[in-house]
């Protein structure tokens, strides 16, 4: 398997997010993303997006933890849900989401060929996917 910059960044952010809760004083990933999109130059965006990826991953980890905890409670309290194994289903979905996100990041990056916009597009994609996943999980 080819390891690219996006995979390394994602892995690092996942580890960092596992040990750090999103602080209430921290600006939300959505607000940071809008701020980065408003930057006047690609260079400024390139400097800005890694922090947004990190924040979106931290927020996603917190939301995932909350949803997983709810699944644990459901599995413990509802005899009817136990055979469906909600916790196992959630864990499988979480792994599948990250694999899909990595594959999409590779696809987007590759679509730029040898151009230098692939990394920026990959950051944008990861942020957009994380924000969508956060919204989806919070809506349950």
Radius of gyration: 17 Å
* Biggest pleated-sheet summary: none
Record field, number of beta strands: 0
Order of helices and strands: HHHHH
What does this structure look like?
By secondary structure, this protein is mainly α. Helices cover 76% and strands 0% of the residues. It is built from five helices and no strands. The longest helix is centred in the middle third of the chain and has 36 residues. It is elongated, with a radius of gyration of 17 Å. The termini are far apart. The N terminus is likely disordered.
Write the layout of secondary structure elements.
Layout: H1 5-19, H2 29-37, H3 42-77, H4 86-111, H5 118-138
Summary keywords:
5 helices, 140 residues, single chain, mainly alpha
Short description:
With 140 residues, the chain is an all-alpha fold. The protein has helices spanning 5-19, 29-37, 42-77, 86-111, 118-138. Helix content is 76%, strand content 0%.
């Amino acid at each position: 398997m080819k390891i690219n910059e996006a995979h390394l960044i994602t892995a690092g952010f996942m580890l960092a997010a596992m040990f750090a809760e999103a602080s209430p004083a921290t600006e939300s990933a959505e607000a940071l993303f809008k701020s980065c999109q408003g930057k006047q130059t690609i260079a400024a965006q390139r400097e800005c997006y890694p922090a947004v990826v990190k924040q979106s991953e931290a927020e996603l980890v917190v939301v995932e933890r909350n949803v997983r905890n709810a699944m644990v409670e459901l599995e413990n309290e509802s005899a009817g849900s136990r055979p469906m194994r909600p916790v196992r289903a959630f864990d499988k979905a979480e792994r599948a989401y990250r694999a899909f996100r990595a594959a999409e990041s590779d696809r987007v990056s590759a679509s730029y060929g040898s151009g230098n916009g692939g990394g920026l597009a990959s950051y944008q994609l990861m942020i957009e996917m994380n924000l969508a996943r956060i919204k989806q999980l919070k809506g349950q």
